[in-house]
Design a protein that fits this description.
Length: 197
C-alpha cells in the first residue's frame, strides 16, 4: 500500500455550490456562494452553512437569523461563481447577475427565482468553529420549480435541471446514472430462460 499523508485539510468533495440569499429588505438583499453546506437532520429537517465572519453576508444572516439556500444548475454556473468572488459590499448581485428576487413563504430573505429549489432556513445556533462560523438551521419551507415536476408521475425531477457540483476548485455537471438507492442489495431479475426451468 502506498498513501501520502497530508496535513489536515478540507478534502470532502464533491460538494454542492449553492447560492445563499439573505437580507430582510431590498437594500440589504445579497447573495453569497457557499460550498460548506449540508443536511444534518431529517426530522426536523435541518441543515448548515459555514460562513467566514469577514463576509458581507455574515452580519446580514446573523442579524436576521434567516436565509434561503438556492440550489444551482449548469445555467446558473456563471452567476454562482461570480457571487462567490464579488462582495455585496460593492455590488448589487441580484441586479448585476440578472437574478430575480422573489418573496419566500416563511422568511424575509428573498428567493432566487431562477433556481430550481429554494430552501427557506431559520438559524437555530451559531457555532464559532474557527475560520468559519457554522449556522445550524431549521428548514421551514422548500420551494420547487413546477417546471421539473413530471406531469405523469408527479415526481420532482431535479436532475433534469443539470445540478452543479463543485470539486477541488472546479465546477462540474452530473454524469450518468450508475445505480439507485439500494441497488447493491437488489435481487437480480431472473432471465426468461431460467424462469422456465
Ligand atoms: C464555489 C465557492 C464556494 C464558496 N464557499 C464558501 C463557504 O462555504 N463559506 C464562505 O464563507 N465563503 C465561501 N465562498 C466565498 C464567498 O462566496 C465569497 O467570499 C463572496 O464574495 C462573499 O460575498 P459577500 O461578501 O457578498 O458576502 C465560496 C466561493 C465559491 C466560488
Amino acid at each position: 500500500m502506498s498513501k501520502l499523508i497530508w496535513k489536515p485539510g478540507t478534502m470532502i468533495y464533491p460538494l454542492p455550490a449553492v447560492m445563499v440569499s439573505c437580507g430582510s429588505e431590498p437594500e440589504e438583499y445579497n447573495i453569497i456562494t457557499i460550498s460548506w453546506t449540508g443536511t444534518i437532520c431529517t426530522d426536523p429537517a435541518m441543515c448548515y452553512i459555514s460562513v467566514r465572519p469577514g463576509r458581507h453576508s455574515y452580519n446580514i444572516i446573523k442579524k436576521n437569523g434567516e436565509f434561503v439556500i438556492n440550489l444551482t444548475t449548469r445555467s446558473l454556473a456563471f452567476a454562482t461563481d461570480w457571487c462567490g468572488v464579488k462582495s455585496g459590499s460593492r455590488h448589487n448581485k441580484f441586479a448585476e447577475m440578472g437574478l430575480t428576487p422573489v418573496p419566500a413563504s416563511k422568511v424575509k430573505a428573498p428567493m432566487i427565482m431562477e433556481s430550481p429549489v429554494n430552501i427557506e432556513c431559520i438559524v437555530k445556533e451559531i457555532k464559532e468553529l474557527g475560520s468559519h462560523h457554522m449556522f445550524i438551521s431549521e428548514v421551514v419551507a422548500v420551494n420547487a420549480d413546477n417546471k421539473y415536476i413530471d406531469t405523469k408521475t408527479g415526481l420532482f425531477r431535479l436532475n433534469d435541471s443539470n445540478p452543479l457540483c463543485y470539486s477541488h476548485g472546479k465546477y462540474y455537471e452530473m454524469g450518468q446514472i450508475i445505480g439507485k438507492f439500494g441497488f447493491s442489495v437488489e435481487k437480480k431479475k431472473r432471465s426468461n430462460k431460467s424462469k422456465k426451468q
